[in-house]
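Field log, afternoon session.

UNIT: design team B
ACTIVITY: writing a sequence onto a fixed backbone
BACKBONE:
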């Protein structure tokens, strides 16, 4: 038996909130989630839904469960004007069978599909998703196996997921929630950036700000200066597209997309809002005709 036929949340959000910066900028995504997760991060920012089946503190979340069919969910996306359906909020990998039914219908209606996931995937589940999944956002939490095991996972599995999803033709973006004292050392940031470059320098890397939550209440918020340091490392390592998140208006050009060749401003953003988009229909920089990696239409 697998989780089926319900949502714990379903909302229309900008795709930038997932976050995706190179996948249909400015488009709306109907995002649905269920309950549960195969990790137990003490810093989880969606812990009410992700830890609902494990932590009694989140028991109240069951009140929000709504039975719904895959057809009804796809129709809701179409009525809402969404171009994308996203599985998020809890860990989508543990409810993949449900997502597969939704995504098959969504594809038939011309909708795009995305996962927002911790990346603790098997080769088999990625192969099953490949025909119906357009884009995959992976959380790369840290670069030491010891820390990954402390939250319930293994580092190599996540690294393999990033590589295999990319090789299967999914559009991949990677997020690292920068937590002071946990994963913000220069060595660890360099290891993250170098690994992504080894898969593809075109993979966008999001370094995002942590705020104290759930069981990680003693830590400090991640400053704009820490995010800038992480971004500098990513760029120096050879990544073409590095973004800083969760501090809108405080990270300068790290919310925007620039051409990696001529540095022209291509997409100007504040938070989840797109103010300008100059990328051509061919997915190129209008100034120098450099191809810009991503899914633009």
């Amino acid at each position: 038996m697998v989780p089926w036929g319900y949502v714990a949340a379903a909302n229309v959000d900008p795709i930038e909130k997932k976050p995706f910066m190179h996948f249909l900028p400015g488009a709306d995504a109907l995002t649905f989630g269920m309950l549960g997760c195969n990790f137990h991060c003490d810093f989880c920012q969606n812990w009410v839904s992700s830890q609902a089946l494990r932590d009694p503190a989140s028991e109240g979340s069951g009140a929000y469960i709504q039975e719904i069919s895959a057809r009804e969910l796809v129709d809701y996306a179409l009525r809402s004007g969404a171009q994308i359906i996203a599985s998020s909020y809890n860990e989508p990998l543990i409810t993949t069978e449900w997502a597969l039914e939704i995504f098959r219908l969504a594809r038939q209606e011309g909708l795009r599909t995305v996962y927002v996931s911790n990346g603790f995937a098997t080769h088999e589940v990625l192969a099953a998703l490949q025909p119906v999944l357009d884009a995959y956002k992976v959380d790369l939490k840290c670069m030491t196996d010891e820390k990954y095991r402390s939250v319930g996972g293994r580092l190599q599995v996540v690294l393999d997921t990033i590589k295999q999803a990319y090789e299967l033709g999914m559009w991949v973006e990677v997020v690292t929630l920068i937590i002071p004292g946990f994963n913000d050392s220069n060595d660890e940031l360099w290891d993250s950036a170098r690994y992504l470059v080894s898969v593809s320098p075109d993979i966008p890397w999001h370094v995002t700000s942590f705020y104290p939550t759930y069981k990680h209440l003693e830590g400090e918020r991640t400053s704009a200066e820490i995010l800038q340091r992480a971004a500098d490392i990513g760029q120096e390592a050879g990544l073409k597209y590095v973004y800083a998140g969760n501090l809108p208006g405080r990270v300068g050009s790290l919310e925007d997309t620039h051409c990696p060749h001529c540095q022209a401003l291509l997409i100007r953003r504040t938070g989840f809002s797109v103010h300008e988009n100059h990328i051509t229909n061919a997915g190129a920089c209008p100034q120098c005709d450099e191809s810009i990696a991503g899914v633009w239409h």
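LOG NOTE: The chain has eight helices and 13 strands.
NEXT ACTIVITY: expression trials, pending approval
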